[in-house]
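seq as requested:
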Amino acid sequence: MTPVTVPPPPAPYLPQRGERYRLVAPNTPTAPRVARDFVGALLRTTEHPGLADDARLCVSEVVSNAHCHTRSARIRVDVTVNRRQVMVYVTDDEPARLPKPGAAPHAESAGSAESGRGLVIVESLTDRWGTTTRGGRVRNAKTVWFVLVEHAAVVGARS
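struct tokens:
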């Protein structure tokens, strides 16, 4: 039996104060939906219903990219929730290419109008987003992360 590797936790490139949640899903066609439902339920439960729709769409796009463009056995979704913001990290174990908004991941999909739009959506809906790799000289994982800020909480904190 071949051991199943799980992508390592994301590097601490963003402040991570708050409650942390994790979903590890097999890289299957249902992974985007499972991740979308996980994040939606989590945000409604943790009193961030105003961020749930954008977070669900963004996580679905990022997990879909990992599913369609990697051979990673597992995709991990880490979510940190605090009073003001939600941070989502999607990690796979294939760091070959870091995705870019509007860039078709593969040459054969370059002509497709559908390809490359997911990260443009993520970029437009989130307050911050980015990519990172882990593993030093021999990279072994890639994480796409994004942050959604509860703007009402920020405005209320300034008053």
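Residues 8-12, 105-113, 154-159 have pLDDT under 50 and may be disordered.
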